[in-house]
Design a protein that fits this description.
Blueprint: H1 9-16, E1 22-23, H2 26-35, E2 39-44, H3 56-67, E3 71-76, H4 98-115, E4 126-129, H5 131-134, H6 139-145, H7 152-157, H8 159-166, H9 173-176, H10 178-193, E5 197-201, H11 205-219, E6 224-228, E7 241-242, E8 245-246, H12 256-264, H13 271-278, H14 283-290, H15 297-313, H16 315-330, E9 340-343, E10 348-349, H17 350-356, H18 363-371, E11 375-377, E12 380-381, E13 388-389, E14 395-399, E15 403-409
Helix pairs in contact: 10-11, 12-15, 12-16, 13-14, 13-15, 15-16, 17-18
Organism: Caenibius tardaugens NBRC 16725
Motif ('KMSKS' region): 238-242
InterPro entries: aa-tRNA-synth_I_CS, aa-tRNA-synth_Ic, Rossmann-like_a/b/a_fold, S4_RNA-bd, S4_RNA-bd_sf, Tyr-tRNA-ligase, Tyr-tRNA-ligase_bac-type, Tyr-tRNA-ligase_bac_1
Length: 410
């Protein structure tokens, strides 16, 4: 089916904005979404104190589910996070303690409150932790009642497992159980919250299909699965991976300005896709912005940065970041949101300043940046790695054309 043939508001919305890659039963889900409010879930394993932009398609998909009048269920993987999803990973995740997982869950919760409306209403979002049921499972009854429905032969055929084995990389029995537990999550949510839809990235297709089949075999319940396309940049690289590391959603992990700047630096060829996926702008406005060419496309990038930042960090954060960018790039000045590092009265070495403000991960990386002409002070390149920055006055320090900071007198 295509967006032209979908009858439900839900699938029309998801299709026109580019969220749909695979559906287990398009006609069945389309019909269900016309008849009733569909509770749908996505799971997030709390492996760090913050999610990153790689999770943002999933978060936005829950937002679109709610915008279409349906009920989002956010599942925190307090249980599955103790194992770690092996899908397409080269090696096993580091096992986290129960205490660290609980801290990560508490830290991550804040982000969802900005994207979703939580409450007790029919289509208000709810958040649950799969540790509520997974931690209570008894091994022998679980094997007998649930394990019998899984074929090891079939599990080995899924790409997420097969690729790991083909590369002769170890896959522990612990990790191998992950797909069974995720399928059980769907069954449990179907029973507890009448959940009828699981969504996720394309790498989750096998796990989602397992859950759909388990609900049918055990309870005779019809549930559905939907995956999004693998999101890459126009050059084929994975979105969200930058030289500076992950683009975190929490403010305490990444500044509002750096978050805004990530979106502002979107390549021309990626603007249209990102506007559809990561903003609430109408498709008509997105079409207008996407048609801009030459230097005018910068207006589309600024709109993208403002809208994406507003959703994740708030209106004030977006406005402040835009003002900082305008002062820094257009006026050649120093904006209020730029990262800062203290400038001692006796001065500081250029290498130490670059490392201290976070523009280089090591002294060696700082030296390479300087040698390549990428280190600048007040807009002028400095190629002497022994250069000492004099104290006493505020100085703008830059790495290339897009990363800027302030050295302020201590």
């Amino acid at each position: 089916m295509t967006s032209a043939t979908y009858q439900s508001t839900l699938l029309r919305l998801l299709e026109e904005r580019g969220y749909i890659h695979q559906l287990t039963d398009a006609e069945g889900l389309d019909a269900l979404a016309q008849r009733q409010i569909v509770p749908g879930y996505i799971g997030f394993d709390p492996t760090a104190p913050s999610l990153h932009v790689g999770h943002l398609v999933s978060i936005m998909m829950l937002r679109q589910l709610q915008r279409a009048g349906h009920k989002p269920i956010v599942v925190m993987g307090g249980g599955t996070g103790k194992i770690g999803d092996p899908s397409f990973k080269d090696e096993a995740r580091k096992l986290l303690t129960t205490e660290i997982i609980a801290e990560n869950v508490a830290s991550i919760r804040r982000v969802f409150e900005r994207f979703l409306t939580f409450g007790d209403g029919p289509n208000d979002a709810i958040m649950v932790d799969n540790a509520e049921w997974l931690d209570k499972l008894e091994y022998i009854p679980f094997l007998r009642d649930i394990g019998q429905h899984f074929s090891v032969n079939r599990m080995l055929s899924f790409d997420s497992v097969k690729l790991r084995l083909d590369r002769e990389q170890s896959l522990s029995f612990l990790e191998f159980n992950y797909m069974i537990l995720q399928a059980y999550d769907f069954l449990e949510l179907s029973r507890r919250a009448e959940c009828r839809l699981q969504m996720g990235g394309s790498d989750q297709w096998g796990n989602i299909v397992n859950g759909v089949e388990l609900a049918r075999r055990v309870d005779g319940t019809q549930v559905f699965g939907l995956t999004t396309p693998l999101l890459t940049n126009a050059d084929g690289t994975k979105m969200g991976k930058t030289v500076g590391g992950a683009v975190w959603l929490n403010e305490d992990q990444l500044s509002n300005y750096d978050y805004w700047q990530f979106w502002r630096n979107t390549a021309d060829a990626d603007v249209a896709v990102r506007l559809r996926l990561f903003t609430d702008l109408s498709v008509e406005e997105i079409a207008r912005l996407s048609a801009l060419e030459g230097s005018e496309i910068n207006a589309a990038k600024i709109a993208l940065a403002n809208e994406a930042t507003k959703l994740c960090r708030g209106e004030e954060a977006a406005q402040a970041a835009e003002a900082t960018a305008a002062a820094t790039f257009s006026g050649g000045g120093v904006g209020a949101e730029l990262p800062e590092f203290p400038l001692p009265a006796e001065g500081i070495g250029l290498i130490d300043a670059l490392v201290g403000i976070g523009f280089a991960a090591s002294r060696g990386e700082a030296k390479r940046l300087i040698a390549g002409g990428g280190a600048k002070l007040n807009g002028e390149s400095v190629t002497d790695e022994a250069h000492i920055i004099s104290g006493g006055a505020e100085i703008r320090i830059s790495s290339g054309k897009k990363k800027h900071g302030v050295l302020r007198p201590a």
